[in-house]
Task: inverse folding
């Protein structure tokens, strides 16, 4: 009995899917009449219809529609009704003899467009409304079948009503149906004065006039008052807005809560799954999150007494995350840029790590950046204990997918993934290599440091700069020494001025007092670069300012009073640069710091 109730609820959901699909078909047919073939609005209607068609066929299977005069029936439920004969699809099918039409799984896009062309011709009065059966026969669709009656039967049916004898009646026996042709015409009796003439009981043309109880040609035989009309309109609106889907959902939830047997629980949970998938297809992430959370809550409560039911619920939830279903979610995200990314992340996290593969596929299909960030956030949370699926995606042919996966690995920051990130560090796209540098910076291990230092030899200056700044965030002498080693390398002098400046800044941000004598000497007496003393002096002063230790501040304060103008200007410029940077980080700072104040500020970072 419970299985029958669940079946009824699933059937109700399928009926709604088919009805929505037919509404989309009618809307697209109207768009075919209104717009030119290359109009973007028409393309939008076509895309929506195709998405609904594939979804319906995938979830329901073959769609079999029985044709009545003004209705199309699915599983004996009306999913389309239109009594306007000029525009009713059902009436067009019915009058042309079609009694059933079936759309099979595997329906191809060109077949769907062909059906629209057939319906357009069949309902276009300007083209003479060609016969539907002929148009369908000419197209010879592979995945569309129809049942029709012959023209002779159609003509016979339109001129007379067939009489079927009662069940059990003897063929050829019984009282014959009265017929005027079999009764000889008699003269009308002559009335005798004072007597009335009684009609015979077998006279099939009585003189008493018979009028129909209602004649369509008469028109409206009664009218409603304005208040009655408003009341009826309100009642119709209330009925139309009645949330039947919510009522069905509550019934399924109640059944799911009461289930005790694993098989019945799985059937009810599978029905609940369809509601979640329907919410996703409609782009309602809030409802999808709520339903998924509710399913987990019911399963958790049931598992207190039946531990095996939690595993069955997880099985259903994993099914939601299957690639074949989540892959259909990309067009929905692309069509709704206003969807809350937080809801998207939360939904995917609720599904769990089994959806990671499908989410990685979505990264290559979603257009909006905020949605890609939400997908990355979900992966970072779901895969924190299992990164193998992410590492396997580093071989993807799309650079942007690899960059996003590298970002996620950096967020997780597991030791042991450094060698996988080294592959990304040698990727042909510079954006992937820069992301790999940032990801390695989040992992604290000797291996990650070694790979960061190796990035100093990258062919692209932006990658080398990113490696220096990332390593500087370690804020220890080991990092500073590695950067200083790059500065002393012979090829460093051939780097551009901005890159050399960034490397000295990185030394200052990561180093400590052991570097002060080296920088002081470079500031006052020049350095290792031929003809580049003034630039070198400026870079040394900048490194000391960013170093910010008491010993470094002491050197800067002393050189502020130097008799050598280039030294003074270098120190003043360096302090001004650091002050401006500090001001941007602390807009509330009311006074500019002196050299000593700046040193204490930078030293605390």
Result:
């Amino acid at each position: 009995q419970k299985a029958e109730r669940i079946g009824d609820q699933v059937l109700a959901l399928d009926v709604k899917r088919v009805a929505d699909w037919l509404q989309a078909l009618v809307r697209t047919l109207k768009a075919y009449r209104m717009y030119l073939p290359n109009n973007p609005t028409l393309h939008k209607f076509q895309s929506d219809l195709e998405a609904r068609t594939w979804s319906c066929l995938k979830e329901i299977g073959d769609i079999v529609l029985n044709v009545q005069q003004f209705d199309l029936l699915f599983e004996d439920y009306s999913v389309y009704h239109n009594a306007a004969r000029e525009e009713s699809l059902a009436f067009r099918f019915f009058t042309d003899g079609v009694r059933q039409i079936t759309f099979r799984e595997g329906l191809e896009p060109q077949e769907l467009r062909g059906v629209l062309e057939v319906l357009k011709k069949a309902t276009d009065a300007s083209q003479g409304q060609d016969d539907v059966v002929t148009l369908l026969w000419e197209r010879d669709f592979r995945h569309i079948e129809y049942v029709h009656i012959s023209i002779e039967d159609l003509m016979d049916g339109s001129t007379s009503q067939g009489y079927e004898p009662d069940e059990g009646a003897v063929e050829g026996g019984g009282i014959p149906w009265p017929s005027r042709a079999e009764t000889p015409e008699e003269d009308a009796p002559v009335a005798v004065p004072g007597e009335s003439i009684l009609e015979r009981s077998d006279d099939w043309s009585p003189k008493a006039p018979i009028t129909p109880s209602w004649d369509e040609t008469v028109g409206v035989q009664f009218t409603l008052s304005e208040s009655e009309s408003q009341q009826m309109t309100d009642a119709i609106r209330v009925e139309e807005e009645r949330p039947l889907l919510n009522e069905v959902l509550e019934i399924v939830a109640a059944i799911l809560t009461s289930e005790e047997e694993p098989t019945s629980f799985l059937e009810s949970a599978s029905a609940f799954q369809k509601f979640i998938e329907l919410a996703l297809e409609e782009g309602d992430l809030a409802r999808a999150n709520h339903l998924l959370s509710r399913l987990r809550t019911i399963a958790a409560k049931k598992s207190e007494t039946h531990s095996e039911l939690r595993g069955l619920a997880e099985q259903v939830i994993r099914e939601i995350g299957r690639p074949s279903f989540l892959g259909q979610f990309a067009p929905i995200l692309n069509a709704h840029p206003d969807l809350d990314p937080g809801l998207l992340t939360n939904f995917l996290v609720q599904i769990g790590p089994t959806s990671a593969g499908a989410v990685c596929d979505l990264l290559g299909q979603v257009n909006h950046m905020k949605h890609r960030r939400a997908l990355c956030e979900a992966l970072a949370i779901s895969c924190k204990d299992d990164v193998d699926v992410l590492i396997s995606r580093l071989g993807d042919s799309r650079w942007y997918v690899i960059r996003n996966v590298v970002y996620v690995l950096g967020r997780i920051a597991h030791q042991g993934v450094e060698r996988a990130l080294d592959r990304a560090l040698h990727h042909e796209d510079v954006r992937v290599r820069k992301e790999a540098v940032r990801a390695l910076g989040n992992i604290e291990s000797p291996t990650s440091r070694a790979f960061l230092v190796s990035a100093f030899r990258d062919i692209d200056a932006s990658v080398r700069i990113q490696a220096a700044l990332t390593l500087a965030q370690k804020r220890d002498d080991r990092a500073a020494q590695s950067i200083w080693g790059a500065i002393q390398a012979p090829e460093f002098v051939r780097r551009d001025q901005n890159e050399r400046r960034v490397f000295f800044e990185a030394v200052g941000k990561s180093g400590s007092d052991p570097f002060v004598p080296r920088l002081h000497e470079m500031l006052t007496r020049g350095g290792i670069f031929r003809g580049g003393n003034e630039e070198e002096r400026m870079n040394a002063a900048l490194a000391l300012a960013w170093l910010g230790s008491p010993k470094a501040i002491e050197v800067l304060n002393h050189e502020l009073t130097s008799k050598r103008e280039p030294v003074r200007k270098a120190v003043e410029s360096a302090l001004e640069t650091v002050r401006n940077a500090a001001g941007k980080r602390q807009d509330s700072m009311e006074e500019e710091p002196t050299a000593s104040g700046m040193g204490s500020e930078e030293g605390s970072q």
The CA atoms of residues 580 and 592 lie 9 Å apart. Strands lie at 63-67, 71-74, 77-81, 98-103, 144-148. DSSP finds 29 helices and five strands in the chain.
